[in-house]
Specification:
heterodimer; A: Rossmann fold; two-stranded antiparallel ribbon; B: 726 residues; alpha+beta; 7-stranded mixed beta sheet; 23% strand
Chain lengths: 225, 726
């Protein structure tokens, strides 16, 4: 499977995601933000980081970059797109995903391991996970507090477009286990066609037992399935 | 413009220093030249008070590639790998503007490391605040922590370890020390020494603004009630631009274009150009019209003294300009040839075709004043407390009080504001004895730690100096690393005060003795004097950053208990030293008496024995015993793992508080499976290492028969309350 990782000047998880993709047998290409051509890809990853510094609203400038036009085109043609952390913020800024990521409820950067529950496995990104499986992933963000209109929130729930929700170690989805204040404990969402996934936790940080655990591996192997 | 006495004074120069300037120039300086002298001769840049003492530190060793004198120290960790690291203070700016002060402290130390060709792989910090009930403390804590995080998180280097402490001595002068650690190939290390005449001097990075003018001079004077007015001398950080600069520099470093490179840190363009020329025994000529400026109408004086961040000076090989320029354009950074190296031995500054200033390089460097300041010795304080007269306190109550104190509380409130995992090589994050970072795509790892013991250093600087080196050494050993070298950040008061100078001199003697004995040389560092306000000096606070090597990162050792029925063995002897202990401070507010004695030979033997046991895979977990003594070390092992401990009563010492809370040095706790015990004891007895069994791992409760019984979950809560309620 061919993957492309979009590299903004302030991306800082680009190396980590590339490493994960290569380890899991993707044929990966790094694509510079000034490029106007996207190599033929089955998966496009918009990685974490601080795209253009994010001194304005996170991801706002990145959403207007050359390469994002190409990503939007590819996404609309059905290519799989994964936005992690800053990548998720950028995807919401482009409109590929609806809603917005507000400042964390405690108004501070949060860097820690959290638990998420896999709610929907009937899609290309999660088919290797078991339904209701609890994963331990890492988050590191200032703005991960997902917000959207009540109509859209209802739609997300009704159409099963929320693959991951924050939970406790045992899988209970409670507000106490919501690190950033996101609506309905949302940790990630799909677009309607489920070919675009945006998520705040970093699966690429959980592919190596030595450093953490292997809970992120199946997200990538699902795509290969 | 005539240089008056008041102008000289405003530049932080003494009258006799000004006459020396006139002698060296054989004329009066103009204002630009005076500014440059002031920037180069201040304490921060010239080390004029510390130099005579610093030269005694051991700086060589079989693993040392580059000792002090460069942007950072370099050590060999085998194969073709080198580790480049340094710690630096940003105390004064952080007190005036905590977020930007701390952020630019991180930015500055990162530049020191990637300037030498290393990709930074870890950040650490040692931050010291005033008393929690001081009105400024909360705001400073918030600002500093988010500033450190704001910079490191954005640039994408994990912040993996540190210490956060509170003491009223820092009420009006906090300490913010940041350490950066990078990895480079041994044959690709870049230095600041210029070579060759007529080589292009290139300015890269951010534009020059009016921020930070005289920052280094500010850092070389005491504060007074008007310090708030110094806010404009604090620089503003831009981690995004630093990321661009880092990537561009590392890209340029892949080929052979760079002759020398130096970041513009304290005293900006002045110190970077002078240092490069000085090291190469060359002159340097700069055309100030070419400096990329952020605002119009900036004067040569402002350009030379600005401390705008995220800038570098590079001396390039002939004919490499175009290729180099392409790289910086790719990263949207300025790249301008602003001068050339010369054979004149002068710093020559031209502006609009005029000579704006000219100073012999050596007048700014080797001929700068050096002071052998008066200093007085500190006697070892006596032991005057009769412990029998102290009010009784139950062991359990004392433990709870200590666990819930500001200094001993769990620091996740701080560390959760840092990205600890980016780069995905952090094997052990903060909270343990030391952080462990894997060398990318390799089996080996490095361990890193920062440590300080201001109260020990205040009580007896000589012992305190030794103790922190040992503490650093022990922390590295405890994660299975062989300690290799240190960097130090020496935070002291006003060196013109003989008592302060004595604290400095004796701490350094202590450092020297311990570093020599443990073969743990100093490869880089920074001196920060004039920490204090209105003649009130801070307690001496040397901070040590240690780096060690773990050959097989697969053998992961931490301080988390692993299994019920396992035995906890203590290495090293307990004498029950309570003076300067956490127990005396937190329970009785007693801050007097001598620090615990340091026996270097025991330290070395005990540490080497522990390392041997770890490498033989005979131990399941390791923790060193430090502040709070045996009971606190045991409690930390329990809390972090969720297991309880059945703790033995002492066989010899009759005084339980002395036994459990004493802070005797050179001690470790080892968790050992019963089946390995005989083997371990055999090895220890062969090496003549004192040891005793102190506890057994059990479920749920921390327990001393008849004295104490608390559930681990309860201990966790007690330990996690302070920050959340502050």
């Amino acid at each position: 499977m061919n993957s492309s990782v979009i590299v903004f000047p302030g991306s800082n998880c680009d190396r980590d995601i590339a490493l994960a993709l290569e380890k899991l047998q993707f044929k990966n290409t790094m694509v510079w933000h000034k490029d106007t051509n996207l190599p033929k890809s089955d998966l496009i990853v918009v990685p974490g980081g601080f795209s253009y510094g994010d001194y304005l609203r996170s991801g706002a400038i990145a959403a207007k970059s050359n390469i994002l036009n190409e990503v939007i085109k590819a996404a609309n043609e059905g290519c799989f797109v994964l936005g992690i952390c800053n990548g998720f913020q950028i995807l919401t800024e482009t409109g590929l995903l609806k809603g917005a990521l507000l400042k964390n409820k405690n108004l501070k950067f949060i860097g820690k391991d959290i638990f998420i529950k896999v709610i929907n496995v009937d899609n290309k990104f999660c088919n290797k996970y078991k339904k209701d499986q609890v994963l331990k992933l890492n988050i590191a963000h200032n703005e991960g507090n997902y917000f959207t209109s009540s109509d859209h929130l209802k739609e997300l729930e009704d159409k099963n477009l929320i693959p991951f929700k924050y939970c406790d170690e045992k899988g209970n989805i409670k507000y106490e286990n919501n690190p950033n204040g996101s609506l309905n404990n949302i940790a990630g969402i799909f677009n309607d066609k489920k070919n675009i996934l945006g998520m705040m936790p970093h699966p690429e940080r959980m592919i190596d037992q030595m450093v953490s655990n292997n809970d992120g591996v199946n997200l990538f192997t699902s795509l290969l399935n | 413009m005539e240089i008056t006495n008041s102008i000289v004074e405003k530049h932080g120069l003494k009258a006799e220093e000004y006459s020396k300037i006139k002698d060296l120039l054989k004329r009066d300086p103009n204002l630009l030249e005076l500014g440059i002298f002031s920037a180069m001769w201040n304490e921060h840049c010239s080390y004029k008070s510390s130099r005579t003492h610093l030269k005694n530190l051991p700086t060589k060793g079989k693993n040392v590639i580059q000792g002090p004198g460069e942007n950072a120290g370099v050590i060999d960790i085998g194969d073709d790998d080198a580790i480049i690291f340094k710690i630096e203070s940003h105390n004064h700016p952080s007190f005036i503007e905590p977020y930007q002060g701390a952020a630019t402290g991180v930015g500055g130390i990162l530049r020191d490391v990637f300037t030498m060709g290393a990709r930074p792989i870890a950040l650490l910090n040692s931050i010291h605040f005033g008393s929690p009930d001081h009105p400024k403390t909360k705001n400073l804590l918030n600002g500093v922590v988010s500033g450190i995080g704001g910079y490191g998180n954005c640039i994408g280097i994990p912040t993996v370890a540190g210490e956060t402490k509170f003491n009223k001595t820092y009420n009006e002068n906090i300490l913010v020390n940041a350490m950066a650690v990078g990895h480079a190939k041994k044959n690709k290390i870049f230095y600041s020494k210029a070579k060759g005449v007529n080589k292009s001097v290139v300015y890269v990075g951010s534009k020059t603004g009016r921020d930070g003018i005289h920052g280094a001079s500010m850092a070389s004077a005491e504060f007074n009630e008007n310090s708030e007015e110094k806010k404009p001398t604090v620089q503003v950080g831009d981690p995004f631009t630093e990321k661009l600069l880092m990537e561009a520099c590392l890209e340029l470093m892949k080929d052979e274009s760079i002759i020398s490179i130096q970041d513009m840190g304290a005293a900006g363009l002045t110190s970077s150009s002078v240092e490069m020329a000085s090291k190469g025994n060359l002159g340097i000529e700069l055309y100030l019209d070419k400096i990329p400026c952020r605002e119009e109408g900036m004067t040569p004086y402002e350009m030379m003294l600005s401390e705008s961040q995220e800038r570098m000076l590079i001396i390039l090989e002939d004919g490499k300009e175009n290729d180099a320029k392409k790289i910086f354009e790719k990263w949207d950074l300025d790249f301008v040839v602003i001068g050339k190296t010369t054979d004149t031995d002068n710093l020559t500054l031209k502006y609009k075709n005029d000579l704006a200033g000219e100073i012999p390089i050596d007048a700014l460097t080797s001929k700068a004043p050096i002071y052998d300041r008066k200093w007085s010795k500190t006697k070892l304080p006596e032991k005057k407390i009769d412990t029998k007269t102290l009010g009784k306190i139950k062991l359990q109550d004392a433990l709870i009080k200590i666990l819930s104190s500001a200094d001993q509380s769990n620091k996740t409130w701080v560390t959760e504001q840092f990205d600890q995992m980016v780069m995905t090589d952090t094997i052990q994050r903060s909270g343990g004895n030391a952080a462990v970072i894997r060398i990318h795509k390799k089996e080996k790892a490095i361990a890193v730690t920062v440590d300080s013991s201001a109260n020990y250093c205040k009580a007896h600087p000589l012992t305190g100096g030794k103790q922190i080196v040992c503490e650093s050494w022990r922390n590295l050993i405890s994660v299975g690393a062989k300690p290799i070298a240190i960097t130090n950040c020496l935070n002291f008061g006003n060196p013109e005060n003989p008592k302060v100078m004595g604290e400095f001199a004796e701490c350094l003697l202590g450092l020297k003795e311990a570093c020599e004995f443990l073969d743990y040389p100093v490869v880089s560092g920074n001196v920060s004097f004039y920490n204090g306000t209105n003649k009130k000096n801070i307690d001496p606070t040397p901070v040590i950053g240690g780096v060690g090597l773990i050959r097989e990162s697969g053998n992961k050792i931490n301080h988390l208990l692993k299994k019920e029925e396992n035995i906890i063995l203590q290495i090293g002897k307990t004498f029950g030293h309570l003076y300067q202990s956490v127990f005396f401070k937190e329970i009785y507010s007693i801050m007097e008496g001598p620090p615990p004695e340091v026996n270097l030979s025991n330290e070395k033997n005990n540490g080497e024995a522990v390392l041997k046991l770890i490498n033989s895979k005979l131990v399941d977990s390791v923790h060193d015993i430090s502040s709070g003594g045996l009971i606190l070390a045991l409690t930390e092992m329990a809390i972090s793992s969720g297991y309880g401990l059945k703790i033995d009563k002492p066989a010899k010492l009759s005084n339980l508080t002395e036994y459990y809370f004493g802070e005797d040095q050179g001690r470790y706790l080892l968790e050992i499976e019963p089946k390995n015990l005989q083997n371990v004891l055999k090895i220890l007895s062969k090496d003549n290492i004192y040891n005793e069994k102190v506890a057994t791992v059990q479920k749920d409760n921390l327990e001393i028969l008849g004295e104490l019984k608390i559930h681990v979950d309860e201990l966790y809560k007690i330990n996690n309350t302070w920050y959340n309620c502050y």
